[in-house]
Amino acid sequence: MNQGKLDDWFQTELKFATETINITELDHSEKAKWLSAILSPRPLALVLTNSTEGKMNLAPITSLAVVSNSPSLIVMSLSQNREGQHRDTYQNMIITKKCQLQFLNPTLESAIDADICGTPTEKSEWELIGKQGPIHPLAIATLSCTLLEDNPLPEGAVARLLTLRVDEITIPAGTTSHQAFSVLCQHGIDTLTPSPNDWTYVATLHRS
After folding, report:
1. pLDDT tens, position by position, 15-34
2. Which of 142, 159, 161 shows the shortest CA–CA distance to 151?
3. How far is Cα 43 from Cα 186, in angstroms, rounded to an integer?
4. From CA 48, how far away is CA 136, in angstroms rounded?
5. Residue 170: what are its φ and ψ, rounded to 5°?
6. Cα–Cα distance between 21 and 183 in angstroms, integer?
7. Which of 2, 9, 4 has its CA nearest to residue 200?
8. Rounded distance, CA 135 to CA 137, Å?
9. Residue 203, by phi and psi: left (phi above 0), alpha (psi -120 to 50) or beta?
């Protein structure tokens, strides 16, 4: 940019798709690594649910996607633990039908807290991270949702596909809908990172 050449700004090492891998022949770990490497980065949400006893559960989830704007629908995949048991997040949502997705500012503290919240525990995750809920102090936006559907996935997958309706959003005061948020993301299988912001291009040819 200092030289007045746009090419220098965009210059990066390009790689090209030339090798084909039959992913069906790979083990679970390798499949997860490849899919996470390609479908990346993905925003990380701390999913807040409550048990019938009032215990707050907080779980880091990246298997999220917006599938409809009107009505406002999100799908979320929730798997089982290694013992074949459904996680507290799923069990709570099936009963209460409610959850809140909390998206965090991309800081090291946010990343550490998200990592800690993935630890199996009998306590509330709020105790593990030393903070008080219900909203994480580094949350930049939240989506309050209602569970509409709980469906199995095909081909023997153990995860469940949940369809959520977004009822409310909470955002910083003065924010407009034209501003993309910088949030904590998962990039690859285990790396947490800020949203990409090295360059942008505004697409104008799509149909809204």
Report:
1. 888 999 998 999 988 998 88
2. 161
3. 6
4. 10
5. -120, 125
6. 32
7. 9
8. 6
9. beta
Q: Are 140 and 104 in contact (CB under 8 A)?
A: yes
The structure tokens 């390609």 sit at 38
Domains and CATH numbers, the chain: 52-194 (2.30.110.10)
Q: Which amino acid is at 190?
A: D
- Answer whether 129's CB lies under 8 Å from 113's CB: yes
Sign of CA dihedral 64, 67, 195, 174: negative
Give the integer Cα–Cα distance in Å for 57 and 63: 18
CA distance linking residue 17 with residue 72, whole number of Å: 35
pLDDT in tens, 130-185: 999 899 999 999 999 999 999 999 999 999 999 999 999 999 998 888 878 899 99
Residues whose CB is less than 8 angstroms from the CB of residue 20 and which lie 6 or more positions away in sequence, other chains included = none
| Whether the bond into 134 is cis, omega within 30 of 0 | yes
Cα–Cα separations (whole angstroms), residue 76 to 51, 79, 140: 19, 10, 20
Determine the length of the chain.
208
Phi first, then psi, for residue 119 (nearest 5°) are: -80, 130
